[in-house]
């Protein structure tokens, strides 16, 4: 038994001190690698009150068939801004990522492509998927090729959050025709037409707004710290529900804003909401 244990220990990968200038650099490298390993296993923060999320996640999971290794599935999740696309995608990542050794949830692609650039997104994708700290991309075309060359033989889970043009997809994933069998690619976007440009191999899922009961429950969680609204606020709550039109983000923002306020303060706030929307 001890011989077996020694053989297994000898085959474990570790840190080579020859690659570090001194002991402090080696220790820092070990700490960073362990920290990254722990962070990669932590679930993404989804929502404080995930009202309506589970049923929608289950709908998506049915179409993904995660456990199958026989095919490649590309899914586009679309809907209005604030309807919960990112929340659902994060929940899907938490539910499925353990099936994949190479996986990433690349958040805020639209915003980061502007503020930090596509090369930064390419480096983030490569670093997280390959678990390497020192990957550098020197130009966009080479970055795309590096992604394809490095990942084409791996079963991957890639979630691109909030894409808004095909150029972002092409520079991060090429023509989407190179994935290994069993891979799952998910994109969230407000624009269904963007998904249509990717061809027939992409399935789509429209995130529907919350129904009335879900909207009341979510709003009440934030505005009253309860599943139901207070009786004397019912008329005002109905105004909020009509105004929010089933969008979770609007319900959360207003619920937080109105928590602990008097009826008069609610009326004043609702008037401001309506004026700002005109």
TrEMBL record:
Domain NB-ARC: 56-227
Limits of the TIR domain: 2-42
CDD domains linked: ABC_ATPase (cd00267)
InterPro entries the UniProt entry points to: Apaf_helical, Disease_R_plants, NB-ARC, P-loop_NTPase, TIR_dom, Toll_tir_struct_dom_sf
Annotated GO biological process: defense response; signal transduction
Gene Ontology molecular functions: ADP binding
Protein name (database record): Uncharacterized protein
The organism of origin for this protein: Quercus lobata
